[in-house]
Amino acid sequence: MLTAEIIAVGSELLTPFRTDTNSLWLTDKLNGVGIEVKLKTIVGDDDARLEETIRDALKRSGVVVLTGGLGPTEDDITRKIAARALGRRLSLDEKVLEEIRAKFLHWGRKMPEINARQAMVVEGAEVLPNPNGTAPGMYVEHDSRVVVLLPGPPREMKPMFESHVLAKLSERAGQVRVARRVLRVAGMGESAVDERIAPVYTQYKNPQTTILFNNTEIEIHLTAQGKTEQEAELLLDGLAGQIEERLGDAIFAFRGETMEEVVGLRLAVGGFTLAVAESCTGGLVAHRLTEIPGSSNYFMEGVVTYSNEAKTRLVGVPAELIERHGAVSAEVAEAMAEGVKRRAATDFGLSVTGVAGPGGGTIEKPVGLVYISLADDAHTEHRRLMLPGDRHLIRWRASQAALDLLRRRLI
Amino acid sequence: MLTAEIIAVGSELLTPFRTDTNSLWLTDKLNGVGIEVKLKTIVGDDDARLEETIRDALKRSGVVVLTGGLGPTEDDITRKIAARALGRRLSLDEKVLEEIRAKFLHWGRKMPEINARQAMVVEGAEVLPNPNGTAPGMYVEHDSRVVVLLPGPPREMKPMFESHVLAKLSERAGQVRVARRVLRVAGMGESAVDERIAPVYTQYKNPQTTILFNNTEIEIHLTAQGKTEQEAELLLDGLAGQIEERLGDAIFAFRGETMEEVVGLRLAVGGFTLAVAESCTGGLVAHRLTEIPGSSNYFMEGVVTYSNEAKTRLVGVPAELIERHGAVSAEVAEAMAEGVKRRAATDFGLSVTGVAGPGGGTIEKPVGLVYISLADDAHTEHRRLMLPGDRHLIRWRASQAALDLLRRRLI
User: Fold this and answer.
1) Which of A19, A40, A124, A289 counts the most CB atoms within 10 A of its CB?
2) Nearest to B301 among A221, A291, A314 (CB)
3) What is A3-173's CATH superfamily?
4) A259-410 has which CATH code?
5) DSSP readout, B299-363?
């Protein structure tokens, strides 16, 4: 398998504030054409270290992708150092210079002389056009290696890579195509998921299976290699089908969709409408649902009834019900779901009430206790949850469980 | 200045799904005691590449910090390869082995034999205890260098580094202390901020100033070096004061606080209460406010009036007002703010209505048009905004502007 390494250049990437996100995107694209990423380096605007990093990379890897450091200032050293590491000359390319000048002219400005530096090209490199900026990229074949220079800003880097680099690298990589799929799971723990599906996925080296737990959701990543995309996809279909047999409804997405996308699609397809009453989630359920374009077709209204008085006035929860059972109770959750559904005249009413912490917990009703409820014309149900985590996580998990309750009803 | 490099070990960090977050935290801590991070590498579970990476690092840097690869499986190669790169023996430490056995016993389990591997110690290393896991860390002084081996999981790595590594490195770094401050700005563009404060901050090499724009907010990061913390803080005070003179109220946080923290604190201190009516932000304003612990003391209720009917029923916006001016209008925004304030009987009513897109825009009311309004007992005001970005960004920026309107009233 052809191997690659990625070098991100820029002193700002060595501060605690910035992380290199380009390399994740590049890894995905490289993997997709069957190229494995074996190393990533982040190096500052430091001539000696960058040169050493490039030289080391060339010893090990078939493809070396550099991002960043193609700007017009003294600090932008990638062009100069890449040429030095390759033992090639760097010289002004008049044609590239004219193109940069023309760009500035088009913007109604004169090219600052400093930008002429961006027309310096490594001897023998193919120049890669940059429709979204002034810095062209470069593609250099060197012995049996390839070195690619890309600009740092993602909106310049990504289209350049896709239009001018990917096809060439794909050809170099030969007959390997990689397909990927992300299954998302709700309502089960990581070890429970692994226990059920390990007997299936451990039988295969291809597809490869990775279970990721990001604090809030479990994702099952499947990666398959084939001679064609179809072959790889077929392998994925086979394993995904077996995993579905084991997990059933707990899988809410087969293509990486979010919970709110899945729920929104089902509501839209069914022509249903929804209203939401939230206490401890404080608007998060409504916020997630309305992140989806077109959600105004099914999401009618939400209320955040933080105070008890608001629970009574906005969704008609009887004050004595709150007094008898407490605001965090199955009874109040159901009354909230029914009340918001009735007042908004929707097909479904969904509610959440709980103790998100860090304060407000008692022995009977500790931090993490959450009730969710769903009402439709026929009946009302609720779930009692004990959610681990801090305030932020408890709120997120409660919103996920509420949306999942609705999803299962909509199946 | 003492320099460091960070090596993150683990093949999962070379997939498109995982990013190395440990190094940001470590960079912050190392910078804090005056150590500069000059290079970061991410390497898979690959003996030869890891050995080469460590050897290269030792040639360049005074401190080499490795994270990950200390688990009990075959894939966990950091111990073995670090010993090899340092030319030191790796041998079983009976005392460490006993401690690991005791941990399992404490959990009511027998130690799996595989975990004995975690008791292998590099010759001459100081063993660093791990209260949150089984893998101990190691601290090795080698010639004039230091090599530190830390576990990968942040909840094991961070306390270990803080308790057992930071003080030693701080001493090595000598008399340099670094202090940092983050100022956050609302309601101004990046270039407007830079134009106003560049004449001030460019006069100083210490503190150093970096302006970061994360798509939604502008942050001004100040970093100062001094012989003592006090000296560094004093330098920060001086520059922060000058920047405040130039930006005034536009700075909403001087210590990195979020907008909802600042607004929440001001509401709590003033003993004020708030209710929120949202249309296009769909619950985001309520969600952000209620992320803050204790927000139930000032946040009374929120309504997400997505449909016109809900605007009338829930906050009393006259139907004819919506018909005459449209749901996205200054008039409706003000009626929403006044209505939610009146019904919830709070000190403030805050509202948002707009076109978040991608659909729903017209020539008169394009995507990005947002009205925000704030009502108190004395008067009601509104702002008309034209916000750039996609649906997600428009919603976020609208929520930020609404919270900022309230913040300015509370000053």
Assistant:
1) A289
2) A314
3) MoaB/Mog-like domain (3.40.980.10)
4) 3.90.950.20
5) EEEEEEE-SHHHHHHHH---HHHHHHH-SSSHHHHHHHHHHHHHHHT-SEEEEEEE--SSS---S
